[in-house]
Amino acid sequence: xxxxxxxxxxxxxxxxxxxxxxxxxxxxxxxxxxxxxxxxxxxxxxxxxxxxxxxxxxxxxxxxxxxxxxxxxxxxxxxxxxxxxxxxxxxxxxxxxxxxxxxxxxxxxxxxxxxxxxxxxxxxxxxxxxxxxxxxxxxxxxxxxxxxxxxxxxxxxxxxxxxxxxxxxxxxxxxxxxxxxxxxxxxxxxxxxxxxxxxxxxxxxxxxxxxxxxxxxxxxxxxxxxxxxxxxxxxxxxxxxxxxxxxxxxxxxxxxxxxxxxxxxxxxxxxxxxxxxxxxxxxxxxxxxxxxxxxxxxxxxxxxxxxxxxxxxxxxxxxxxxxxxxxxxxxxxxxxxxxxxxxxxxxxxxxxxxxxxxxxxxxxxxxxxxxxxxxxxx
Length: 378
Hints:
It comes from Corynebacterium auriscanis. By secondary structure, the chain is α+β, with helices and mostly antiparallel strands. It has seven helices and 23 strands.
C-alpha cells in the first residue's frame, strides 16, 4: 500500500501541475524545474511508511526524478513525493533582496525622490510602478510600521496615486495593508563571471565600423557582427541567411523609442523621456539589426546595489515578424557581455509571473528566481 501524499502535499503548500508526476511547491515556477537547478524534495518512504525525508541538491533528471544529495545520487519514486521546491543557487538574505531593489531604484529613478521612514518614495511619469512607487530600501522598513500618511502626502503633492512596491520579506510590514494589488512580478538573478565573455559568439571575429556614440557588446571599439554560421539559437532560418549587428548606444534613437514597449503597450512621450534620462550609473540602449533593419531593442543599466554593481535589462522587444527565432536570447547574451564590460558582477531582471515564455528564456540563460514583488495602490 502506497502512502497517501495528497493530504500531506496540500498541507505543505504543494499543487499538481500538468506534465509533472509529483506535486510542486506553490512558490516554485514550473518552468524552473530543469536539470541542474538546485531543489529540495520531501518524500515519504514507500516501504516502511516512516517519516518524510528531505533530499537537497542539484536536479539530475525530472523523469525519472533523480537528485544528487549529500549522500549521493538518489532516484525518488514520484508516488511518494510530498513536494518539490526549487532553490536559489545560494541562500537569499534580506540584505540581498534590498541590494537588488536598490540597484533597480537607481536604474529607474523618479523625477522627485524622498525618503520617508525607510521607504524611498519616487514620483515620475505616472505610468510604470518602478519609478512611481515607494520601495522599502532602509533596513528599518522591514520592522517598522509603513509610514502611510507620509507616503500619501508625498504622492498628493505630485498628483499621483500613493503606490508601494512590496518585495518579499523586506516589505512584509505592508502585506496587511488594503489596496489594489498589481500583478505578481518575479525578480530573477544570476552571477556574472569570466565565462560570460564567451556567451556572445562573434562569427569569424568579424567587426564593423562604428559611428557616433554607438558602443559594442564587448569593449573592442566596434559593434558585434554575427553571420549565419554563428553557434547561437538566433541563427535559424530565415535569420541564418542574414547579417545580424548588435550595438549599444548612449542615447535612444527615435527608431529605438518606437519599438520600446512596457508590458506590450507603447509608452507616452513623458514616460519615454524619463526612460532615457541620465542615471547614476551606466545606461545603454541595445539594438539588433538584421540586414540594416531594426528588429529588437532593450534597455540596459549598470547601477550599484549594496556593495555590488548590477546589470539590469528591461523590455526585450522583438518585432512580431522576427519572433521565435532566438533573437531575444541573442539580445540577452549580448547584454550580459555589455554589462561585464561596464563593471557588472551580477545581473537581475523583472518578469511577470504570467509570462511563461519569458521565464523560460531567462532560466535558459542561467537566471533563477531571487524574490517576488507586487505593487500596491493605497
